[in-house]
Amino acid sequence: MFFGCKNLSFSYYEKKVLTNINLDVKKGEFVGLVGSNGSGKSTLLKLLCGILFPQEGEVIIKDQKLDEHNRIKVGYIFQNPENQIIGVTVEEDVAFGLENIGVPREKMLERIEWALSTVGLEGLNHADPNALSGGQKQRLAIASILAMEPEIILMDEPTSMLDPKGRNEIYKVIRNLREIGETIIIASHHYSDLEHVDKIIALNDGEIVYEGEKDQFYKSNVIQSELPFNEKIKRQFNADLKELVDEICR
Ligand SMILES: Nc1ncnc2c1ncn2[C@@H]1O[C@H](COP(=O)(O)OP(=O)(O)OP(=O)(O)O)[C@@H](O)[C@H]1O
Ligand SMILES: [Mg+2]
C-alpha cells in the first residue's frame, strides 16, 4: 500500500470520533475529504501524519507502519498558515525543517529555490513572512512542507481563511503539485477546492459513508439524505461564485 490506514479508530478521552476507517490512497492521487463540522476530518488528518496516535488500527506509508521515524514522509499543512510560520525571512522559514532533518547546506539552497518557485514565491527569499498576504502565507506554509520532499501532502481546509484571490493562488499551486506527481489529500467544505479531485471520501459522525467519484457523490441520493452538509456544499458553492463575481466586478 502506498498510503492509507487500516481499521483506524480514535477517541478523545471517552468520546469516539473515528470508527474503523480504511483508506487506500494511490501514488499521485488527489483525494478530497469532506464532511460536516465535527465529522472528524482534522482528527483523521492528524492521525495520518502522526500528530495523533490511533487507539486502534494503523497508518501505512509505503507498506510500513507510520511511526516517529518515517512520519517525516507525510507533510501536514495547517488550516491557519500562521500556525506554521516560524522564520524571520521566507527563506529561513523553508530552511527550518530542512535544518532539523540535517539536509546539507548546498542541497538546502537548491530545495528552497525549487519549493519557492513551485508555489510562485520565487524572489521573495528575504521578505518578512508576516508582511505577506494570506495567500502568500499559505503558499509559504506549503513550500516549507514541500521542501522536505514528503511522499504525501495533507491539507486541512487550505483556502478557508483566504479571499477569492488567495484561493485562486492556492488552486494554481495545487495544479503545479499535481503536475509534478504529488499525492494530496485535501479536507474541505469548499466545492471549488474539490473540483479536480480524483475521488471523494465523505465522513459522517466519524465513519466513511462514501468513497468514490466526485460526480457520483454529488448525484447520490443516499448521500443527500444521509449528509445534511451536501446542502451546505451547494450553498458554499453559490457563495464562492458570488464572491468571485464580486471580485471580478470590483
Ligand atoms: N482536542 C480535542 N479534544 C476533545 N475533542 C475534540 C478535540 N478536537 C476535536 N474534538 C472533537 O472531535 C470531533 C471531530 O472533530 P474534528 O475537528 O476532527 O472535525 P472536523 O471534521 O475537522 O470539523 P471542522 O469541519 O469543524 O473542521 C468533534 O466532535 C470535536 O468536538
Ligand atoms: Mg477540521
From TrEMBL:
Main site of residence?
membrane
Keywords, in A-Z order: ATP-binding, Cell membrane, Membrane, Nucleotide-binding, Translocase, Transport
Spell out the InterPro entries in the cross-references: AAA+_ATPase, ABC_transporter-like_ATP-bd, ABC_transporter-like_CS, ABC_transpr_CbiO/EcfA_su, ECF_ABC_transporter_ATP-bd, P-loop_NTPase
Q: Where in the cell is it found?
A: Cell membrane
Q: Which residues form a coiled coil?
A: none
Q: Is-annotated flag, keyword Cell membrane?
A: yes
Q: What are the residue boundaries of the ABC transporter domain, all occurrences included?
A: 3-230
Q: Name one GO cellular component term.
A: ATP-binding cassette (ABC) transporter complex
Would you say which domain of life the source belongs to?
Bacteria
Instruction: Provide the GO MF annotations for this entry.
Output: ATP binding; ATP hydrolysis activity; ATPase-coupled transmembrane transporter activity
Key word Transferase present: no
Q: Which PANTHER family match?
A: ENERGY-COUPLING FACTOR TRANSPORTER ATP-BINDING PROTEIN ECFA1, HEAVY METAL TRANSPORTER
Protein family = Belongs to the ABC transporter superfamily.
Q: What protein name applies here? A: ABC transporter related
